[in-house]
Write a structure and sequence with these properties.
It contains 4 helices and 2 strands, in the order αβαβαα. 9% of the residues are buried. The longest helix has 16 residues, at 74-89. β1 (17-20), α2 (32-43) and β2 form a beta-alpha-beta unit. Helices cover 53% and strands 9% of the residues. The protein has a two-stranded parallel ribbon. It has 93 residues and is mostly helical. α3 crosses α4.
């Protein structure tokens, strides 16, 4: 997995990763595997990894005038918002 992430980042010019923070407890809690995947992403290629809280994404979605692309599947909406939030925070959009 680490090799695949590193190759993906290199081939696609990924400069950083942004990950939605997972809850530690409750119905939406992240399991051990997801935390290990996040750790592997952090260790790959020396790229910065940013974490964004779910409440921050909710607030951002209310103020984000660009909205979501048409046809974006439901499970991809939070990752899209996380990336858009981080780009806006870095003043890249």
């Amino acid at each position: 997995f680490a090799k695949a992430i590193t190759a993906f980042a290199h081939e696609n010019g990924v400069e950083a990763f942004c990950i939605k923070e997972r809850a530690l407890t409750g119905a939406m809690a992240g399991g051990g595997v997801t935390f290990k995947i996040e750790a592997l992403i952090q260790l790959c290629g020396g790229k910065p990894v940013y974490f964004v809280h779910a409440n921050t994404l909710k607030k951002f979605s209310k103020t984000n005038r660009a909205g979501l692309p048409n046809g974006l599947l439901g499970y991809l909406q939070d990752p899209y918002r996380a990336g858009a939030y981080q780009l806006s925070k870095l003043n890249l959009i």
